[in-house]
Amino acid sequence: MTPKHEKQEFVTVLVRDPRTQKEDSWHSYIDYEIFIHTNSMCFTRKTSCVRRRFREFVWLRQRLQSNAVLIQLPELPSKTPFFNMNNPHHVDHRRQGLQEFLENRKKWDSSLCGPVKGDVCRILQDALLLSDSRLHLFLQTQLSPEDMEACVSGQTKYSVADAIHEFASLNRRFPIEDEERKKGKNDADSDSESSSSGLRPSDDSISCGCKASPASEES
What string of DSSP letters covers 85-141? Predict the structure, then answer.
């Protein structure tokens, strides 16, 4: 096959559908749906959907930066005491910032509370960052940061691939992936993972095939 006939790799990422989750009668937080669709061989699943909260994005950026100190990562929207989860503008402003963080098309200037031009890496296109298993677990499973750390350090009975496949098998299949399976692409996207892997599903609420992360009071 000549290069001009080769499929160009793409990664589509959407941060959407912010929802308020209650931890108890006093504390609530907002999580966001992260939708991924890709044909990249770097990803175990070609389509996935998870829910993550702001502090988990903070954890991800810290871990990625510590493992790639020479790479300039995009900034997250600033954490501000004036953030009001009942204000649709505040919530959507943060959602846009999280979207920009994963898309890496713009640099988020916290002092200006908005994106500005800047030379920063693209997280989902950078080979070094894509080699970090934490990124894949963050995007394609509902494991907590503690469980992700345990998984990548080999302290769990399940591997990174096990965790991703198991989460997919617990959620409905996407039509796009069903079509790919019919075309014989079921090797990489197989859902057949043994229940003896030791991986336990999160006990959070299910939303559109996704599960909300464990709660605390920060949004």
Answer: TT-HHHHHHHHHHHHHHHH-SSEEETTTTEEE------TTT-HHHHT-HHHHHHHH-
Angstrom distances, CA of residue 176 to CA of 118, 173, 179 = 35, 9, 5
Q: How crowded is the C-beta side of 116, counted as CA atoms within 13 Å?
A: 6
Percent of the chain with pLDDT over 70: 68
Q: Is the pLDDT of residue 93 over 50?
A: yes
Return the ∠ at Cα 19 (arms to 18 and 24), rounded to 5°: 145
User: CA separation (Å) from 92 to 80, 100, 136?
Assistant: 14, 12, 25
Tokens of 77: 């929207």
List the single range of 58-67, 114-123, 209-218 with lowest mean pLDDT: 209-218
Query: Please, which residues have CB within 8 angstroms of residue 67's CB and are 6 or more apart in sequence?
Result: 132
Give 163-213 pLDDT, tens digit per residue: 999 998 887 544 444 455 455 544 444 444 433 345 544 434 334 444 444
In this prediction the pTM is 0.73
Element (H, E) at 28: strand 28-38
Eight-state DSSP code of residue 75? P
The residue behind tokens 């693209």 is: 122
The amino acid occupying position 163 is: A
